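Deliverable D4.2, example record:
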Amino acid sequence: MNLTCTQMDVLISFYIEGDLSNSLKAQVEEHLKSCSSCRAKYDIIKTMISDLKNSINPKPVKEKENNISGQKETKQYKFFQNELSAYIDNELSCDENIKIKKFTINNPLARKELEDSYNIRKLMSDSFNKTKLDSKQDFSKSILKQLEIEQDDAFDIHPAIKILIVFTVLVLILTSVVLISLSV
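Output generated by the structure prediction step:
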């Protein structure tokens, strides 16, 4: 059985944590080899989980990491981090855009962060568009229509029978009115 990308969305985190059976693990690995979209999701999620675990249990700081953390503490880098989302969404003024571009060109750490942000944005957009295309209909409307059809089927009576029922009810009403008037 080949896994679909939708199934992979559910299974990726279990795969990363090692919570799958051997057969399912093999199927996930096969899918990751053949599907670049799911492979990109896997890589991003694995990196995010790894970063989260490292932030909870930080490793001893090395000399190179000291240099990186020193770079992150500069005024320019803080400006870059604060304005990164607005830069990606084209919400900055021309001067602010130029500052971000210059800083990104000169700072490999900022370049990597910008690239990662674009990759995550593209991945989310692709995933949204795929889901949107996969679900061409609104499921809630579909379910409501099905319920309406079932209700209509339950009370759907042939028109001739409806006329007969109405006629019978009218005859009964008229008969009861006549009987009541005769007894008075």
